[in-house]
Structures are given as structure tokens and as C-alpha cells.
Amino acid sequence: MSKAEIGVIGLGTMGAMLALNIADNGFSVAVHNRTAARIPEFMDMAGPLGERITGHATLEDFVAGLAQPRNIVLMVPAGDAVDAQIAQLRPLLDEDDMIIDAGNANFHDTQRRAKDAEDAGVPYLGIGVSGGAEGARFGPSIMGGGTREAWDRVAHILEKISAKYEDHPCATYMGAGGAGHFVKTVHNGIEYADMQLIAEAYGVLRDGLGKDAAACASIFDKWNEGPLQSYLIEISGKVAEATDPETGAPMLDMILDRAGQKGTGRWTVIESQMLGTPVPVIEAAVVARNMSAARDLRLAGAAAFGTPDRTIAEDALTLGDLEQALIAGKVLCYAQGFDLLGKASTDYGWSLPMAEIAKVWREGCIIRSAMLNDMAAALSDAPDQNLALAPYFHKILEDNIAGLRKVAVVAMTAGQPVPALAAALNYFDTLISARTTANMLQAQRDYFGAHSFERTDAEGAHHGPWLDQHLQG
Ligand code: 6PG
What we know:
By secondary structure, the chain is of the alpha/beta class. It is built from 20 helices and 10 strands. The chain has helices at residues 13-24, 38-46, 59-64, 80-89, 107-120, 132-138, 148-161, 179-208, 213-223, 231-241, 264-275, 280-293, 295-305, 319-347, 354-360, 371-381, 391-413, 419-431, 438-449, 466-472, and strands spanning 6-9, 29-32, 53-56, 71-74, 98-101, 124-130, 141-146, 164-165, 168-169, 171-175.
């Protein structure tokens, strides 16, 4: 068999699915896994695709089985495992051989690894891959970072294996170093927020309006035919209608309310704080996951204070209000995510292609939705503008903000937590404030620390009359 066009290291679910996808698209693939016993299992799974796949039990054989210059995809757990794999692999490679990290890396790690590669004069790519196992197998969304030449070298493979939106491949070069992994991180932050907004709507349906799981499923299904059409709404309908094979009860009712996370949502929030660009809906979503995980504390709280009856009167809130709330919340959450991408683009010198980011998310990834096509159009017209101010989304917000306000007020009055919806509303209300209350903060800062403030009627730094008084005692 001739040498393989590309290699994949790491045959966990994502790596295995990606290798099958590459082979399915007509490329020859060499694979390797640290635990060699996994390789024959994988070859069995590959079936007829195995004709284009060679399994290699040692790293040396794997390297020898690849056509030069070599292109090697790493699908190993993010973090130290990637550094360890690179350290093992690099000495076996030639100068023009390229390592491509396709895991969910922290973009700071990718920046560092790209710099190390640059210093060593070897090519390196960090690519964000979204779409879960099904996406990896049949077409993920791919966000590339590294040098343009490195990307161009494998673009034909990545574009071929990616999801397609009306024939347009969802695989795009984002910029140098960690740009691809940064875009993937923000994707995941938005993913957390979108999921949390939907979970809050489900909470209002379940606890406020007394809907059972089946009723929730039909509501999600109906929403999926309108402006909220998206993969996450679609699967929310599917999970709500599923039955637990063990008890016959709705599956949702049998799932403990303690959410896990691997950290990408948290990274988005940390970066937003470092870059000074607020993403409060994403922040609320990360906090909500942390609160869900603090189950013992919640049980103690419920025992100490009692959980109120959260019933909402039927005439107090309609399903239309709830749909509006999700539409407005979603627009505001994406507006925040794209703002963060814009700020990072400037600060890290990436020139991120804002409209292309929206386009690459239209298919294959977890946050794919109908709205992303309109976001791409708005960002092509004005890449630096907050999406909420783009004419198309301005109109959507005007039409739907009343629903968001009503849901937030009614739910909070009933004692129902809706942190992401409330964060979206507070963001909007602040966004439209020509005058906030930060004059009070500035006065306080000046009073206790002589930090000075700007005046409304004059340029420069000023102090209040209090300084002399209180510092002189
Ligand atoms: C994707 C997902 C994926 C992520 C999972 C789990 O785009 O395919 O974002 O990369 O790892 O969704 O994330 P959490 O465990 O943090 O929820």
C-alpha cells in the first residue's frame, strides 16, 4: 500500500470518527493510538473504509507510513497530553512535517505551541473542530489557526471533510497562532449560553406553566419551525420526548440536575474579562452550571428557606412571550460573542474574518442555526458593529424585547431562576442607556482613592470637593 496522505493520532471517539470521515472522503489515512489494542478494534469498526486506512502500533511505523511532507492530526485530550505527544513525535519528523492539533485546546497553549514551532522552523496548525461525534464522522465545522501556508497545505482535505452549507465548506482559516482555537472557544461559550437559555425556557414551561416533558417536546418542535430553528432547539425537542427504557418515565425527569463541563465556557468568560469585553449571558450560563453542580448547597438552601411554588398563571405568560424571549436572548448572546471576537482580533492582531465565522457556524457545529446566515450578512455589511445595532437585528430586538422583559419579570416574580435571560435583558437595558449610574462609581473612587473623574462639561481629570475635606480630617 502506498504511503498515507494524512495521519491521525488518538482513536478516542472524536479521533476515530474524524479518521473514518477522512477515509470516507477518499483520502488515505494512517492511524496510531497510544494504547495499541484500540487499533484493531478501530479497523473492525472501519469496515470497507479500512482499505484506505493503515493502523500502526508504534509511532515510528506510523511516521514511516506517511507521505512526505507529513500532515499529522492530533486528537488527544487537550492540555499536557498534547505537549507530551508533540515532544514524542517531533524528533521523528522532518522540518517540513506538520502537526495539526484538532482538540479543544486552550488558545493560549496553541499560541505557545505555534510560537515554539515557528522558532523551530516547523509548520503547525491548531484547528477547532465542532459537531460532536456525528459532526466528526459526517462533517464538522472547522476553525483553523496557524500560518496561511500551513492552512493552505491541508485546506483541500479539511474543506472536503467539513460540513457544507449550500455547497459552501464549513472550514475556514481564522488567523495566526491560536486564532482557530480562540474562535472555537467562543463558539463553546455561545453553546453554553444557548443551552442555558433553552434550559431556562424549559424551566418556565415545567415549573411555571406545568407542562410535562412531552408537552415541552412539542413546543420545542414547533419553535424549531420558526426563527429559533437550530440544532440545539431540535435536540431539546428530541430529548424531551424520549422515554427512559428502565422506568418508562420521561428520560428528562430521570436525569439529575447536575451539569458537567470541560472548561471551554469558563475560558470564554476568563478571556472576556481579560479583554474587558462583557459577555454576561455566557457568564450567567457558566455560573448556572456551577450552581447546578453545587447540589448539596442547593439542597441545604431548599431545606432552609423552602422552594416557592413557582406556578405562573396561564394568562400571565404565553408561549409566544417565551419564544420571543429566546429570540431576543439569542441575538443578544451572539452580539456579545461576536463583540468578544472583534476585541480579541484587534488585541491579538488576528484580523478575524467576522462574517466568515458566522458562515462557518451555519452547518456542522453545535450552535448551527438559521439565524447565523442573517448574522453573516449583517457582519459582512459592518464587521465591527455590535450585532444588536445591525438594522436586521435591531428590528428583531424591537419586535421581541417585550417578550424577554415579560418572561424575566414574570419568572423572577414567581421565584423562578432565569439568570441567562435576565442577563440578556440587563445587557440590553444597559446597551440602550445613554446615561448609566457609573458617575456614582467615579465619585466613590475619587472620594476614597483620589482616582479622579471626567466631567460632563469639561475635558481632563477632575476631583470632587470632598478630597480636601476628608483627607485634611
Ligand atoms: C462541539 C462541542 C464540544 C464540547 C462538548 C462538551 O463543538 O462539538 O463544543 O467540543 O467538547 O460540547 O463541552 P462541555 O463538557 O464543556 O459541556
